[in-house]
Holliday junction branch migration complex subunit RuvA (Psychromarinibacter halotolerans), 223 residues
Amino acid sequence: MIGRIAGRLDYRGTDHVLIDVGGVGYVIHVSDRTLAALPGPGEAVALYTDLLVREDLLQLFGFTTPLEKEWHRMLMSVQGIGAKASMAILGTLGPEGVSRAISLGDWNAIKAAPGVGPKIAQRVVNELKDKAHTVMAMGGAVPSDTAELAEVIEPGSSAAPRPAPKPKRASGAAAAQAEALSALTNLGYAPGEAAGAVAEAAQNETETSGLIRAALKLLAPKG
């Protein structure tokens, strides 16, 4: 498996790039969003990659972050979603947008991707909504006990985080809240506001996926 390629950007196509690695050129297919984020020809570049293997074809797909790559793999697990549709969804929403849409059950956002109809969009949400938190929580370790969350940073506080106490074994509810907090901070929310939303959501939710959905609704812009 080719998991990452780093080299010099040799050529930019409409949906792919050619990266020179020690004299060997790799054609890597990318989304519109990823293509726009890459430097110009001659510049150094690195992409996380996923290799699609078929009987008559080998294709590399490139992503700027491991989160984007993992969402590609997850989307491809849905019946009716091929590589082209997956790249269209990621190109339209980005990995963070996909995380929000699936967690909130917003299949209309998925449908906004070119070539993705309403039935496929609903299938994506229905099949992945309970798996979304595992992808969203990639990277970013957080304390595993709710008491430790308050020690690390107080909701709404701009003060520098204080050192966390020695980790303890988390209860089921505490672990779910820690996973939800990790997912929200990986989406770009500040630790303070994320912790506050998770704490409020925990009054009615106990599962990680439910906590994430409820917290995202609390964090959504009002009006």
Observations:
- The chain has ten helices and five strands.
- The first strand starts at residue 4 and ends at 12.
